[in-house]
Amino acid sequence: MGTNLNLRALLISVLLLLALLGIWQVASQSSASASASNLSAEQAEYLKMLGKDPGAQKQGGFPTPAEMGQAAWKHLADPFYDKGPNDKGIAIQLGHSLARVGLGFLLACVVAIPLGFVIGMSPLLHRALDPFIQILKPISPLAWMPLALYTIKDSSASGIFVIFICSVWPMLINTAFGVASVKREWLNVAKTLEVKPLRKAFQVILPAAAPTILTGMRISMGIAWLVIVAAEMLVGGTGIGYFVWNEWNNLSLTNVLFAIGVIGVMGMLLDLVFARLQKWVTYAD
């Protein structure tokens, strides 16, 4: 039954993909024929300055799926090339983004999980810190970027700080909730057995709260991957977000669409990793 369902779901997915590619092909061809003659003198001159032949390529509209395939093959065939600050392979750009996300996320784990643990175990601290959390939580991570650039004075470190800010709140709140939701019976048994506080924290509370903590980490990673693209567009330099912005400035929609696909695939892989971890720590009640 499960295998049959998976096969039917796969068939529907393939049909949807083919339908989308067909619509994309028709729409991009129509757009190409409509806009081929609309190239202004300024646009033609700009393309010449970039070393491109205005008459040799389609301008306006979306690239066709075939053009996207060619661009993807070109990028994936040599993902590690480095021809200067504004021309690096997709793997290098992706590596910079993953490094920023990883470091900011790790810093958020170091702060949010212990603090959430303490807040979850102490109703007094929960009430005392809750107003600060409720005020700081809704602030857009990008709103901190000017302050980060002013104080840190480094664009890459500012990007890491923004990832830290956006990752810390879901982890903190979920950790506090998970710890506070541990069954009283289990805590009473630990108390009856005179289990020491540190052992109770690591052998009773942490395993019980682990699924909720992993949920917070999964949400944080999803938000971090969303934010890094916008952050790198602002700070520039390197990263997949900067790649998207740089290719937009080069009027290369094909590369922009390719980068969007890479961002989506990488986001899916990151989510799958945390889904596996979440499943690994989830227990039958």
A few lines on this structure:
The protein is mainly alpha-helical and 285 residues long. The protein is built from eleven helices and no strands.
Structure commentary:
It is a single chain. The chain is an all-alpha fold. Helices cover 78% and strands 0% of the residues. The chain has 11 helices and no strands. Helix 4 (90-121) packs antiparallel against helix 5 and helix 4 (90-121) packs across helix 10 (240-249). The radius of gyration is 24 Å and the shape is globular. The model has no long low-confidence stretch (mean pLDDT 87).
What order do the helices and strands come in, and which of them pair?
Elements: H1 2-35, H2 41-49, H3 65-77, H4 90-121, H5 123-136, H6 145-152, H7 155-180, H8 184-192, H9 197-235, H10 240-249, H11 253-281
Helix pairs in contact: 3-11, 4-5, 4-7, 4-9, 4-10, 6-7, 7-9, 9-10, 9-11, 10-11
List the uncertain runs. Answer: none
Helix content: over 70%
Taken as a percent bin, the fraction of beta residues is under 5%
**Largest sheet report:** none
Query: What's the end-to-end separation, in Å?
Result: 26 Å
H-E order: HHHHHHHHHHH
The gross shape turns out to be globular
Mean pLDDT comes to: 87
